[in-house]
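User: I'm writing a tutorial on reading structure tokens. Could you give me a worked example: one chain, its sequence, then its tokens, then a sentence or two explaining what the tokens reveal?
Assistant: Sure. Here is the example chain.
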Amino acid sequence: MPLVLIIMGVSGCGKTTIGRLLSATLDWPFFDADDFHPPANVKKMGAGTPLTDQDRLPWLKTLATKVQEHIDQNQPMVLACSALKDAYRQVLCVDSKHIQFVYLKGDFHLITLRLQAREDHFMKASLLQSQFDGLEEPEDAIVVSINPSPFDIVETIRTSLDSRLNTPN
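And here are its predicted structure tokens:
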């Protein structure tokens, strides 16, 4: 069974770091949703303006197409994507039996510190509150605290995935 793992959460929670580590551990390709934003979205976020649902929809549809391509080709993948709202996850969830969301959960203070330490990223720390305000925590995701080390987080995810990965079609 192909499987798409979507690592989700607010900016600064570690989606890219965890996604890359998990990808390397599983030997699955990794994609960062930020790389698929159109230039207008990047410019808007870089100016400190939160994206609207209208801004996000074409981006989410592009990501959904990428997910569907991997499912159609029987190829697993790891995707780091904020997927903050249920409506966004619905767009991405093109085939629920092949997709597993992993929610990296952390508190505002810790994530603010992480964002303030970032360099060369278009997402400004000032936008974090808008992400927390818009966050609709998922009900069907693997939920993992961001407090442990990245390697411990990946191990927690792997342990949670073992039963699904070893389940025959």
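What the tokens reveal: The CA atoms of residues 11 and 82 lie 7 Å apart. Helices lie at 15-26, 39-46, 53-72, 86-92, 108-117, 128-134, 150-165.
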